[in-house]
Specification:
The protein is an alpha/beta fold and 247 residues long. The protein has ten helices and eight strands. It is 38% helix and 19% strand. It has an eight-stranded mixed β-sheet, with helices on both faces.
Length: 247
């Protein structure tokens, strides 16, 4: 079983990258779980036809204690098991607590034992890598971390913080940074900036996802590009990325 945490600055397209990667893994014959670890709870929408999934924290606030995996999940494209942690009421409480609480519930419900996935993807907000947002790294849930960034200054700043956070746990046999996923925004000298950033930190650029209207068209339909057209050039990028990570 391969467990990958995908981090990146808010708004960098991290959830789009994660859901398309989940679809690519599924298209390649893998059984996949995707866990959205963001209070916005929008990680899995493109796997679920554009509909939102009730987050675990919302259930708990309504005094609906989950008793089965089906109570907190939905099956998306390609059989991907979709889960959203959610977060507290806006303005109240710590957003990261939703992740910790949800992970504890998933343990109690024996998610891994019951679903028996080949791949688990954690889609994690990376603006602040502390508390609950660091749980996939420091609690041993993930094997590896992939950092999504563009060549924009603030995206690279967040990527640097994520890389530092992971390195803080290097001596504890926790998750390691697998590398960078460049989600291009077509800023000036973008490729060179990201190559320099990665080189200075001894990180690999695992894949480059170019700007594509196909991604926008697919999202308007509540789909990933894999579901819309697995033969398209952008779909093949994600399928190749899934193969690279699986190896």
């Amino acid at each position: 079983m391969y467990k990958l945490a995908i981090y990146g600055k808010g708004g960098i397209g991290k959830s789009t990258m994660t859901s398309n990667l989940a679809a690519a893994f599924s298209f390649s014959g893998k059984k996949v779980i995707q866990i959205g670890c963001d209070p916005k709870a929008d990680s899995t929408m493109n796997l679920l036809g554009g509909r939102t999934l009730t987050p675990v924290m919302d259930l708990l606030r309504d005094d609906r204690d989950p008793e089965t995996i089906e109570d907190i999940s939905a099956i998306g494209y390609g059989g991907v098991v979709c889960i959203e942690t959610g977060g507290p009421t806006p303005g109240l409480g710590c957003a990261g607590r939703g992740i910790i609480t949800t992970f504890n519930i998933l343990k109690e419900l024996e998610l891994v034992e019951r679903v028996r996935p080949d791949v688990i993807l954690f889609d994690v907000l990376g603006d602040v890598v502390c508390g609950g947002f660091a749980a996939p790294i420091r609690e041993g849930y993930a094997d590896e971390v992939m950092i999504v960034t563009s060549g924009e200054k603030m995206a690279l700043y967040a990527a640097d913080n994520i890389n530092k956070a992971v390195k803080n746990f290097e001596d504890r046999s926790y998750a390691k940074v697998r590398g960078i996923l460049l989600n291009k925004r077509n800023v000036p000298d973008e490729d060179a900036k990201v190559r320099e950033f990665a080189s200075e930190r001894n990180l690999d650029i695992i894949s480059v996802i170019p700007r594509s209207d196909d991604i926008n068209v697919a999202e308007e339909q509540g789909k990933t590009v894999i579901e819309m057209d697995p033969s398209s050039s952008i779909s093949r990028r994600f399928i190749e990325l899934a193969r690279t990570l699986a190896e």
